């Protein structure tokens, strides 16, 4: 503010009116001397709206264009131009385009893009011009500031394509060319945009790009989460149960990976738990068995809600919140319906039936097919066929209930499904679960059904029978029993780990577990020359291969154990094991240094490549060469489950990974 001017002194008396005139003139001169940028800053300091006239008019704005375009006010200028009279706004369109080209402040750049998207007039006038600018700025990532601007430019290109102002092939080209070594902050944005683009356009090249970003340390969690959503959508668009269940398993694996990388990913935890509840319901799990999963879902969904309330979700991602809410609410309902279906009748039939119909007609906006219904409906129908009381409730409510038309249609579809099942020969007490528990069904009295046994008990009995068939005997060592049980629980994530395949795989798994244990415990005099490699300083991979082959050949009676088999996945296997039906491949490595899950990840692609035309189960083993001052890892640390989704693939491949410590020393030689 200019100093107040005064003529004369206090002694000779000043004219107050003349003082005001001189003061006002000085202010006017000061304001007149301010350029457009200073006028803009002054208005902002007073929290006043900005118009073209406030900045001295179009000519003054254009005269000060260089400074205005470099200042962090591009979003404010976009607002001003959007609201300007048509004749003034038209003269400033090129000025705004130049602002997008020269902007140095990432946040005002992103906010200006939002103003552009919201203004139909601006989009129609300058969209094509800014596309070229966005494309250039996407490639400028030398500094952190430029990297953020590049990410926001890609976001702007994607949003313009969603609005139909540019071809979707423009952002698709930019997205699918992103490599895994781009800056982390850019990769995180690309993963989120790529996931949204997949749900908009369904381009498989986007999934390939997201797979590449799994190798970017900063973007791994985001890429895994987006891949999980993509595979979830694909699974629920599936046409048969095998495809749907395999896809859900892949999606769960990716959500779990996102959570493992970033434990703050409440969204990944919630989706993983929701899938577990849906699959648990389909597998006839009891409410008690699913309670822990439900608790985890509720906790994760609450954490997610807090994040969404305290943060800012960009408009193009807002629909994701609706999908989240829909999925998580469905999962909660599924758990309650499991309890309802276990009862022979209900006290509040109308309310209970509403919940069941919601599950029976389940769908999700992230999917377009009937996959979710295919997973959930069989259990609902089986319960109504088994319990006459439930079917009676349905008939009563259909005849008397005041349901909305949509709900009545669902109820009628359920009744039609029950009638069709009965005409096909399924009466009350239909033993549909016999298909799930074939070993148990085989030993039940004629006419009995596994449905007459509590589901958790039936599963336990089936598990025990499968173990007996696969092993012939129980492992004597309780630690080995625990390790085996843990690995089998984790393998349950594979849709192929069932029936004959499960029995054969378990037989091989048990022998590998025993081999790993024995090679840590056996002395030289027990193993003889074949165990010398375990204490050699530089043994070969072939030493482990020969030792393991002989062990398996001697213990897997009737199995075919071959080494160096050609013609499998255009390569040569280390060990190939066939038990008369399914065959499994064991890939072996010699590894210098600690063979941790992280180190093993570099071999997953090769080890799972042998599963391309086979069951998606196999083994990866390593001869670990470490000069240890202390003892070797415990047996529980030497075996673990790993899953891998190949780039461009939709089905998870599963491995049991094991390590055989080498360079062993006697306990007396350890420090």
Structural write-up:
The chain is of the alpha/beta class and 671 residues long. 61% of the residues lie in helices and 8% in strands. A six-stranded mixed beta sheet has the order 1-2-3-4-6-5. Strand 5 and strand 6 form a beta hairpin. Helix 9 packs antiparallel against helix 10 and helix 24 packs antiparallel against helix 25. The protein is flat, with a radius of gyration of 34 Å.
List keywords for this structure.
alpha/beta, flat, 8% strand, 671 residues, single chain, disordered N terminus
Uncertain segments are 1-12, 20-32, 426-434
Residues in β-strands, percent: 5-15%
Structural class: alpha/beta
Give the % helix. Answer: 55-70%
Average pLDDT:
80
How would you sum up this structure in a few lines?
The protein has 671 residues and is an alpha/beta fold.
What's the structural blueprint in terms of helices and strands?
Elements: H1 16-33, H2 36-45, H3 58-63, H4 65-70, H5 74-83, H6 86-102, H7 106-118, H8 120-138, H9 144-163, H10 169-176, H11 184-201, H12 204-213, H13 220-236, H14 241-261, H15 266-282, H16 287-310, H17 318-341, H18 349-360, H19 371-386, H20 388-400, H21 405-423, H22 438-443, H23 455-471, H24 478-491, H25 499-521, H26 524-527, H27 541-555, E1 560-568, E2 571-578, E3 583-592, H28 597-600, H29 604-609, E4 617-625, E5 639-644, E6 653-661
């Amino acid at each position: 503010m200019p100093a107040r001017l005064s003529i004369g002194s206090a002694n000779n008396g000043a004219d107050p009116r003349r003082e005001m005139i001189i003061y006002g003139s000085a202010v006017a001169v000061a304001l007149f001397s301010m350029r457009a940028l200073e006028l803009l800053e002054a208005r902002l300091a007073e929290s006043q709206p900005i118009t073209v006239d406030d900045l001295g008019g179009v000519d003054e704005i254009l005269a000060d264009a260089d400074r205005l375009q470099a200042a962090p006010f591009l979003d404010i200028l976009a607002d001003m131009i959007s609201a300007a009279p048509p004749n003034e706004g038209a003269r400033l369109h090129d000025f705004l385009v130049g602002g997008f080209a020269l902007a140095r402040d990432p946040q005002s750049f992103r906010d200006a893009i939002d103003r552009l998207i919201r203004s139909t007039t601006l989009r129609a006038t300058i969209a094509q011009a800014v596309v070229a600018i966005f494309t250039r700025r996407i490639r400028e990532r030398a500094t952190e500031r430029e990297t953020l601007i590049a990410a926001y430019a890609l976001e702007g290109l994607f949003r313009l394509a969603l609005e139909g102002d540019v071809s979707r092939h423009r952002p698709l080209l930019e997205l699918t060319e992103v490599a895994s070594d781009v800056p982390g902050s850019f990769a995180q944005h690309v993963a989120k945009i790529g996931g949204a683009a997949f749900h908009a356009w369904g381009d498989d090249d986007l999934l390939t790009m997201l797979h590449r970003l799994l190798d970017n340390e900063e973007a791994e969690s985001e890429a895994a989460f987006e891949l999980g959503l993509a595979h979830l959508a694909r699974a629920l668009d599936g046409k048969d149960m095998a495809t749907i269940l395999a896809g859900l398993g892949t999606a769960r694996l990716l959500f779990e990976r996102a959570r493992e990388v970033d434990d703050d990913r409440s969204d990944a935890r919630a989706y993983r738990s929701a899938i577990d509840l849906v699959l648990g319901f389909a597998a006839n799990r009891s409410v008690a068995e699913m309670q822990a999963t439900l608790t985890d879902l509720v906790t994760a969904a609450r954490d997610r809600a807090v994040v969404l309330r305290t943060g800012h979700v960009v408009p193009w991602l807002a629909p994701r919140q609706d999908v989240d809410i829909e999925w998580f609410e469905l999962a909660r309902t599924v758990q309650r319906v499991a309890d309802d279906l276990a009862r022979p009748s209900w006290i509040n039939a109308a309310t209970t039936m509403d919940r069941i119909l919601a599950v029976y007609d389940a769908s999700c906006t992230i999917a377009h097919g009937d996959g979710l219904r295919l997973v959930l409906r069989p259990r609902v129908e089986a319960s109504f066929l088994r319990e006459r009381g439930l079917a009676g409730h349905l008939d009563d409510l259909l005849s008397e209930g005041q349901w909305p038309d949509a709900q009545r249609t669902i109820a009628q579809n359920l009744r039609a499904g029950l009638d069709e099942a009965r005409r096909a020969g399924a009466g009350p007490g239909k033993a549909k679960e016999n298909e799930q528990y074939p070993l148990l069904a085989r030993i039940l009295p004629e006419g009995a059904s596994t449905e007459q046994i509590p589901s958790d008990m039936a599963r336990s009995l089936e598990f025990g029978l499968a173990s007996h068939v696969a092993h012939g005997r129980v492992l004597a060592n309780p630690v080995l029993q625990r390790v085996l049980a843990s690995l089998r629980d984790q393998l349950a994530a594979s849709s192929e780990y069932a029936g004959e395949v499960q029995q054969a795989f378990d037989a091989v798994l048990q022998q590998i577990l025993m081999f790993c244990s024995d090679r840590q415990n056996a002395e030289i005099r027990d193993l003889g020359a074949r165990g010398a490699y375990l204490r050699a300083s530089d043994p070969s991979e072939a030493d482990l291969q020969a030792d393991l082959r002989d062990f398996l050949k001697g213990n897997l009676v009737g199995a075919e154990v071959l080494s160096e088999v050609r013609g499998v996945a255009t390569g040569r296997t280390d060990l190939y094991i066939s038990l008369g039906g399914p065959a499994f491949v064991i890939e072996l490595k010699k590894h210098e240094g600690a063979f941790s899950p992280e180190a093993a990840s570099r071999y997953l692609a090769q080890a799972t490549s042998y599963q391309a035309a086979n069951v998606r189960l196999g083994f990866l083993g390593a001869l670990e060469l470490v000069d240890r001052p202390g003892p070797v890892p415990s047996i529980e640390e030497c075996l673990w489950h790993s899953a891998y989704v190949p780039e461009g693939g939709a089905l998870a491949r599963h491995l049991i990974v094991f390590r055989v410590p080498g360079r062993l020393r006697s306990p007396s030689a350890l420090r």
